[in-house]
Amino acid sequence: MKLNNVILAVEDRLSDAVATKILEKFGIEIVKRIGYQGKSYLERKTSELNRAANGITVFMLTDLDSPRDCPPRLIRSWVKGILNPRFFFRVAVMEVESWIMADRVGFANFLSIPIHRIPFPTDAILNPKELLVSLARRSRKRRLRDELVPEPGAKIPVGYGYNTRLMEFIQEHWDLERAASVSPSLKRTLDRISQGRNASTNQ
Predict the structure, then answer these.
(1) What are the residues whose beta carbons fall under 8 Å from the beta carbon of 123, sequence distance 6 or more?
(2) How much is the pTM?
(3) Are 42 and 79 in contact (CB under 8 A)?
């Protein structure tokens, strides 16, 4: 099994940015991207992607969302069968925002807030998106407050520039090693890819 290129399946643009950064770290090329239609779409596609991994490695990233669930249980319920070894099904606990904020040094600098305001470990944050917006409200950078925080009475829980600004942070500032030291689920993902890479080079 050579882990040189993958099909990437994600919920949205933010998850895409996170997954791309991770795969780039290991020199893995993304040959096709699918998803961007939310969690329920990925769930419906899981069996098909598990079968597709017979021909090419698939990397799929979704959120856990609920503290009542756990990654192994979610994976079993979606796959409904034997997990293909070439299907890298990864789950961010609780959301990809947990992984983003796990680089506490980088994210505190990005928002210009005290680092102690970002919990440790970030996987234990029950509503990471809500916390991130709350942290942004305290930012000393007006532009970030304006773009990350929703306007009063807005129907969506985030500001108009939420994805754009966080993707900018991921691409330019996010340190994976620092983040993995704070987020156990991110560390497991990096370790799993590293094991896959080592296995492929030893064959």
Answers:
(1) 93, 94, 98, 102, 183, 184, 185
(2) 0.94
(3) no
Amino acid present at 89: F
Q: Sort strands 87-92 and 5-10 into parallel, antiparallel or unpaired.
A: unpaired
Sign of CA dihedral 146, 128, 46, 58: positive
Residue 12 has pLDDT above 50, yes or no: yes
Structure tokens at 41: 């779409």
**In the chain, where does DSSP find H-type helix?**
13-25, 39-52, 71-79, 96-101, 104-111, 128-137, 142-148, 162-172, 176-180, 184-201
Closest listed residue to residue 89, CA positions, set 122, 128, 52, 46: 46
Res 97 pLDDT > 80:
yes
Q: Exposed, middle or buried: residue 122 (CB in 10 Å: 0-12, 13-18, 19+)?
A: buried
Label residue 65 left, alpha or beta by phi (over 0 means left) and psi (-120 to 50 means alpha): left
Could you tell me if 157 and 133 are in contact, meaning their C-beta atoms sit under 8 angstroms apart? yes
CA pair distance 135, 50, nearest whole angstrom: 38
- Per the document, the length of the chain is 203
58-63 and 5-10 strand pairing? parallel
**Alpha-carbon torsion 92, 129, 99, 67, what sign?**
negative
